[in-house]
Design goal:
By secondary structure, the chain is mainly α. It is elongated, with a radius of gyration of 23 Å. It is built from five helices and no strands. Helix 3 (58-75) runs antiparallel to helix 4 (79-104). The chain has a domain at 57-109. The protein has helices at residues 2-18, 41-52, 58-75, 79-104, 110-121.
Length: 122
């Protein structure tokens, strides 16, 4: 990576000498916020690569699906379909919580975690 840094620095310096950056409307202003500000620094490159490939992390895909199921439950009229959606919502929520707990190192919702543990102990 060191050689790429040298090349990049050299090109930036040459552009500065040529005056390429002189009439920049953002000159002297802070950079716009990056969508990766809330992502851990060690994960940013991986997330950028995934984003450029139009692939989103599993937890974001699960959140989208959970929100969509919530919307469907509000408009669903069939009891059979509601039951199926509730099961899917439970599965997706559990998967999402497990992923987030692994990332955070602690349960997201203590009450929910307790209920899950009670159910497995039966």
């Amino acid at each position: 990576m060191y050689i790429f840094e040298i090349i990049a620095e050299r090109r930036i310096r040459e552009a500065m000498e040529q005056g390429v950056f002189d009439n920049n409307p953002l000159q002297g202003k802070p950079l716009p916020r990056d969508c990766m500000d809330n992502v851990a620094p060690e994960l940013r490159i991986a997330y950028k690569i995934l984003k450029n490939a139009n692939i989103i992390p599993e937890e974001l895909e699960l959140r989208k699906r959970i929100n969509r199921i919530d919307e469907l439950l509000c408009i669903c009229e069939s009891d059979y379909e509601k039951a199926a959606l509730q099961r899917e919502l439970s599965d997706k929520t559990l998967r999402y919580n497990l992923i987030m707990e692994r990332r955070l190192g602690r349960p997201l919702d203590q009450r929910y975690a307790g209920k899950v543990l009670q159910r497995f102990r039966r």
